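Title: Prediction job returns without error message
Component: structure pipeline
Severity: low
Priority: P3
Assignee: unassigned

Description:
Job completed but the reporter wants confirmation the result is attached to the right record. Sequence as submitted:
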Amino acid sequence: MIRLQKIVFRSGGQKITGTLILPSEQNTKYPGVIFFHGRGASEERYVSHAEKLVQAGIACLTFSFRGCGSSEGKFLDQTIRNGIEDAAAAYHFFVKSGYVDKKRIGICGRSFGGLLAAEMAIRVHIRSLALAAPAVHKRQWLDKVIERIPRGGIEAFRGQKSFHGTEPVRRMWKYRGNLLLIEHEKDEVIPRAVVEAYYDCAGTEDKTWVRIENAKHRLDEAREGAFTQIIADWFSETL
């Protein structure tokens, strides 16, 4: 049996909605994983991933960032900094929920959620981190709404050869936990060089790089299933 509990917490004065997905056993502290969705998506796509982890005895939190899903806020007002604030609020809600062992917390972030997962991993204790097709950003974009940055600036940034000096990649030397990087082989949004930069700059020696063959940035159903199995195996082994 799996327990699903709808929850609400606040970030930036607005309500953030989410779901706790918990194993059936009670009166124990579980290892836990928080899912950070991609830009403009919502928690909806991640509940099935979480259910797979719960079958292995791992508690999970999914939620929608401000302006996404049923969370409050206007999407086109949300900056990268707002995303980091929401990610931090989710982390603190999860560790204070009473269900999880705060020494055994993992984060799984995809695309923009991967960027936010990396930002959190260098701020708080994260034992295991999974970054799938993770994004990066320029330092001067922190208070920008990504959708309002001129397209030419985005394309020029995406076309550079190295991302080792970008945010939050350059600070990944601080991270000492377990790290999984997931590359989408045919990704048309996140260059392979971004994944390479995260891998190279991470301070941990416990890092793994896997590739989902023929995968575009948005995974189809079959490759979504492969992604689920990859992260279920990873967190089962490392938390």
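Comment from assignee: result matches the submitted record. The chain has a mean pLDDT of 96.
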